[in-house]
Write a structure and sequence with these properties.
With 141 residues, the protein is mainly beta. It contains one helix and six strands, in the order ββββαββ.
Length: 141
């Protein structure tokens, strides 16, 4: 039996995405996602909340899209795989490691949360197809 390494989550970006380019020209984007969960604790008779902060990396065109349209507070749904990174701490010499998600797909949800002015959507940019004036039956998606 083979292993399965898939992660699906919905959360909010904890910081603006950081895009950089490798020498090969391929884009790499690093960002964080806050994922919350709630449950009812019968012993305390109250609703409890917990939030996890996940580091995510995307590559290629996906990295460029996230860098262009993503912003701190934006809600996203993503799918990817777990990867464990290990390194040696230069100051202490100890080995360190952390799990992160390598994104395969991402969907931007809702509007930008931190801004009074709505964050531009992909269709707000020049060259994007316009759906203004079309009826529901004419929209191409």
């Amino acid at each position: 039996m083979s292993d399965l390494n898939r992660v699906c989550m919905t959360g909010r970006l904890t910081r603006d995405p950081e895009v950089r380019y490798l020498q090969s020209g391929s884009a790499v984007c690093d960002f964080g996602v806050a994922v919350g969960s709630t449950w009812f604790d019968k012993a305390k008779n109250q609703r409890m909340e917990e939030c996890s902060f996940i580091d995510v990396t995307a590559f290629g065109r996906l990295a460029e899209v996230i860098g262009e349209y993503g912003a701190k507070g934006r809600q996203v749904a993503l799918e990817g795989r777990l990867k464990q990174e290990t390194w040696e701490d230069k100051s202490t010499g100890q080995k360190r490691s952390k799990l992160k998600v390598i994104a395969d797909s991402l969907t931007l949800l809702g509007k930008h949360a931190d801004s009074q002015e709505p964050k531009k959507e992909p269709e707000d940019y020049p060259g994007a197809p316009s759906t203004q004036g079309m009826g529901d039956e004419e929209v191409p998606f």
